Amino acid sequence: MSKFIIVGDIVSPTSLNELQCYSGYIQVENGKITEVGTREAFDIKQNVGLHIDVIKPEQFVMPGFVDCHTHAPQFPNLGLGLDRPLLEWLDKYTFPLENKYSDEQFAANVYEKVVKRLLNNGTTTACYFGSLHLNGTLELVKSAIQHNQRALVGKVSMNIQNNAGYYNNTADELRDVELFINSVNGYQNSLVEPIITPRFAVSCDGELMRGLSNLANKYQCAIQSHISENKKEIEYVLQIHSSCSDYTDIYNRCGILNNRCIMAHAVYLSDTEMSTFARLGVSVAHCPASNTRLRSGMCPVRRLLDYNVSVGLGTDVSGGDSASILDAMRRAMDVSEHLSMTQGVGPAIGWKEALYLATAGGAKALGLQDRIGTFEVGKSFDALLIDMAVPHGPIDNYTTSSAGTDAIVDKVQKFVYCGDDRNIVQAYVNGKQVKNIQQSWTK
Ligand SMILES: O=c1[nH]c(=O)c2nc[nH]c2[nH]1
Ligand SMILES: [Zn+2]
After folding, report:
1. Which pLDDT does position 76 carry in this prediction?
2. NCBIfam families, alphabetically (predicted)?
3. Number of C-alpha atoms within 13 angstroms, CB side, residue 442?
4. Which of 50, 57, 312, 397 is deepest in the core (most CB within 10 A)?
């Protein structure tokens, strides 16, 4: 495999409070970062046998985006059907669409577009909900493998009846999930792994969730679900699980909550629930676009962070109306700002914090912090090359400095607030190029 060095402006959010920006180099061998250093160190080092890429002053390299929560089968509804609250929206638009993925060809066609769309948006790692269907969801696995995207893929589990007839009986469901895990592991692809995916406590009973927890333990899989997104949902699950003290208690009693569990939304968690999340190491996928579009509420991310809960960002298509983590960063900042202005939940998260949540924070939330998220020796090179001066791009250059470009930190800030997929000229996963702007990505 290739060995190369990228030289130029490097950006790496290492914690909520620290954004590294420097002129330097990253050396990559067989997909892994083998050296990182300053520009001065590069100028005096021996580089025999290495391909050297010196990037332009208007460019910088940053870690790839991590989408901690999205629904691949819902992409055909992206931008549609946002006129109902959660439970009605699921019944009217979402379950009928997801039910179509019994057709494997339909699934393959959609998932090909989904994976390409996300890579084009700079999402080098995605944590996907598939559908109820074993073979349909394996098409998503195949698409991620084919296009070299890092992914956690979940076959959705549901055993409670709904109007669309979109559910499974418990025994068949547990058998299918185990088959799914074995099939994904059978591909022996280091980038894609299965994730256990009970949809939420409205769609799964305790017996199914306990069975899924056993499978997660048996195969050492991560788990994902939804929690406390919408007030009616919370009311309903507490009614059917009347012996449980709160929503978190329902999942906890079924053995779902642990340090490889990521829960989407968490809009209405109590202080007790937040401290339980922190104590058990449960992460949250914050999905501001869908929380707004489905009128679910505003997630107090600052409070979760103050409780030391790991948080990443999710696009949550198609409750969310955008497949872009850049967009999710801005929506997260907006929601946080509104909470700060109206309810004193602050300070609002700033752009550097949003960038951390979109990269290293997301990696940590998915339990991938040893592999991706920052540029450190030993990690995989999952990265984006950002160009602030693309033709017909969204950002104009007004800089009058002798260098002709903004300071590194100003380039990054402008990209966070004003950039789009046109500025993401290249993307890499494990050292392999998965986007090159010269190619046409949308057929
Ligand atoms: O935003 C959401 N999208 C979904 O598909 C879903 N299922 C349960 N809860 C959900 N919330
Ligand atoms: Zn969701």
Report:
1. 98
2. guan_deamin (TIGR02967)
3. 6
4. 312
> Residue 314: nearest ligand to its CA?
2
- What are the percentages of helix, strand and coil residues in the chain, rounded to 5? 40, 25, 35
pLDDT for the residue 100: 98
229 lines ligand 1 (CB under 6 A): yes
Atom of ligand 1 nearest to the CA of 294: 1
359 lines ligand 1 (CB under 6 A): no
Nearest to 382 by CA among 83, 7, 12: 12
Which pLDDT score is estimated for 441? 39
With pLDDT > 70 as the criterion, what percentage of the chain qualifies? 97
For the segment 361-386, the average pLDDT, to the nearest whole number, is 98
Which two three-digit tokens encode residue 112? Answer: 């090909």
- Determine which residue's CA is closest to atom 9 belonging to ligand 1: 226
Contact 321 CB / ligand 1 (< 6 Å)? no
Whether ligand 1 lies within 6 angstroms of the CB of 60 is answered as no
**How large is the ipTM?**
0.98
DSSP string covering 38-87, please? EHHHHHHS--TT-EEEE--TTEEEEEPEEEEEEEGGGGGGTT---SS-HH
Q: Is the CB of 67 under 6 A from ligand 1?
A: no
